[in-house]
Amino acid sequence: MYILKALKILLVVEFVAALATLAIVTYRHETTALGISNISTIVAIAIGVVGTLIKNGASVGGLGPIEADMATSVADDPRGVRWARYEDYVASLSYGVILIVGAVIWLLITVGFYKLVV
């Protein structure tokens, strides 16, 4: 189940990368294969940077469940807050890695496109 969700997110990342590349190419009126490949490479690098920031940066939910008033009572479960922060950390790590993998795949698609055209 988790693999299917990760593949769906990866597919969305690739679709957004294609749309971003198409939008920039259209805006800049780029017609050469080298120009399109350069723009596509920049998009891949940008996706990789965002993935790295998510993976290494703060957790997805800000300061975690404490700030969002979702913390459990310490009397009910002493490890509840720590577990919620751990889950938040794992989520940010997972999404960051998926974005980095998506950036590498988009870069491979770009290289394949350039080698196919030139």
Number of β-strand runs: 0
Main sheet summary:
none
H/I helix tally: 3
Radius of gyration (Å): 19 Å
Number of folding domains? 1
End-to-end distance: 40 Å
How much helix is in the residues?
over 70%
**What's the overall geometry?**
elongated
- Encode the helix/strand succession as letters: HHH
Proportion of beta-strand residues: under 5%
- Helix and strand content put the structural class at mainly alpha
| Mean of all residue-level pLDDT scores | 84
Low-confidence stretches: none
Written account of the structure:
The structure is a single chain. This protein has 118 residues and is mainly α. The chain has one domain. It has helices at residues 2-28, 33-56, 80-117. Helix 1 crosses helix 3 (80-117). The model has no long low-confidence stretch (mean pLDDT 84).
Summed up:
This protein is mainly alpha-helical.
Detail the topology: elements first, then pairings.
Blueprint: H1 2-28, H2 33-56, H3 80-117
Short key terms for the protein model shown above:
118 residues; mainly alpha; 3 helices
